[in-house]
Amino acid sequence: MERSTIVRVHEGLHARPATRFVKLAKGFESDVELVKDGKAVSAKSSVKLMLLAVKENQEVTVRANGADAIEAVEALIGYLENPRAGLDNESEAGSEAASMASAPELAPSAAALADGTPKLQGVAASEGVAFGPAFAHFPAEIEGPGRRLQAGEIDGEVERFRRAVSTVQARMDRTLAEDNLSAGDRGIVAALRDIASDDSLTGEVEKLIREGDDAVSAVIGAASAIAADFSAVDDHYLNARADDVHAVGRQICLVLLGQDEVSLESIPQGAILIADDIGAWDLARAPLKRIGGVVCGHGGATSHIAIIARSHGIPAVLGLGDKINALRTARDVAIDGNAGHVIVDPDETARADFARRVEAAAQERAGLKVFKSVTPTRADGTVIEVAANIGSLEEIEAAQEAGAMGVGLFRTELLFMRHMHLPSEDMQAETYSALAKAFAPHPVIVRTLDIGGDKPIAGIEFPDEENPFLGWRGIRMCLDRPDIFKRQLRALLRAAVHGNIKVMLPMVSEISEVTRTRALVEECAAELKAEGVPHAGFDLGVMIETPAAVLIAPDLAKEVAFFSIGTNDLTQYIMAADRLNPTVAKLNDVTNPAVMSAIELTAKAGVAAGIMVGMCGEAAGRPDLIPAFIKMGLTELSMSPASIQRAKKTIAAMAAEQ
Questions:
Q1: Which keywords accompany this UniProt record (predicted)?
Q2: What is the pLDDT of residues 265-287, one digit of tens each?
Q3: What is the value of pTM for the model shown?
């Protein structure tokens, strides 16, 4: 069974999308290959898949042979045709995909600032300025003993290598299980774990061992060969994966040698981390809140070091090459992550300049932080709830740190996409309950499963559709699959005992979709009562994201407890312009009079019916649009946690002016 398609995954199969593609492929018994330009590789190997260098808009063929070949091909084709495959949420500023738009990498050089201060030029990898004490991190390079094995030692050495790989994987699993790991960092660590067990690496190592190399030398040789393959690809992002392979190889070698990596736990508050290279796994589990900045000899704007730094707001300058040696004995370091400048032991003039810049940035952040605990209101005293859009429990901390007044959109599809089987009722109930407890007494709005043919989910077979965005998705799919939908509704009823759960239906275009859902909710409640399972009712609302929902908003408002306007999809459907298609990007503008009119009509209908009207699309966090939305009658705005404090400031300023 084989089928060809055009890849729509944003920026192609880079690390995280490749990792999830492999995970999906491994869920099928069939042998599966991906073919591009006549070259076929196993779809169950992350390394081989990334080396195939599949880009967005390229044609590929999925080929499968086995008992479930048809299902495998359909699921994998669906993944490849999904522009957002591999991304956890609507705005992953710290993800691999966001890194693709990074500025061109500059060659490291020694130069001087405009005032004559000597500086090193590297790659501007994460914006921001920092000044602090240098923390040198230069672990000794690992060298293989170069010992030739005797024939009787080979099997034992292979087994020793396999145990080392298992140990590294177990350590990474423990890291993945930590609650303080962000969703972005989690994806990076998961990609590294896949490399550690990938047949391309393990197979080559075992081949070298059987040819007589000791395990450490074999790991170094195999990792170097694979890293060289990544470096040879004409793609900055894939070149950066060479660093990941070296980092994984180093971890395996350390286990084989019975050594521990030099810890970063002792880094002082505000220190600048200086390293020739540092593994993404090491950085992800370091005390990131204490790190003032990062400077590395290796790495670039698309490396996982840069991605982690950006996602945590840590200024970083990478790719200094041999110039990093000038920082080995530095006492203090100043870095400019915007321009890629590094100053070693800056003089008083440079110190004063950086101190001013750091203070200005800190004041701006502090000026917004005061709004963390602010409850913004309109001039008449009406509270405007500023909530967070999140897709996993790992994102709770960031939302709370920003001052989120609850959750305006919890995307449940990630819970389904993370597993190779449909999540059980108990698993869902635990997740929704944890979410409710974390934000109590603030409301938590949970969107029911919003997937279609563009988002492959193990356990759900989707038809082949010409345009899955207009097809069997969202509430349409759920109502046709009550076996799946009722499991989620039962879990939500169980979580509602905490009192702050609300439920929102996606892709609604008919009133009957609401009434049919309500009937299922009542059926589920009756079942739970008969079983003696604690449960409670919840407010039922709808996302307004189709033109049909806007036009029937007055009637819909009589059937539900709230509206939440999803501007991302509403804009593309109103303008008939795919929001992921760059050729029609100028049409995909929420400020277009047609879209703003649709938002106003929705708000008017909701206000007239006396129900809450909110917004959970990206436009909700735009300071230039918030005043207009508030004037229309919206009383809830949900957005990325990074936008919350600025939104609160905007609303407070409106009230003060009136």
A1: Cytoplasm, Kinase, Magnesium, Metal-binding, Phosphotransferase system, Pyruvate, Sugar transport, Transferase, Transport
A2: 889 999 999 998 887 777 877 88
A3: 0.56
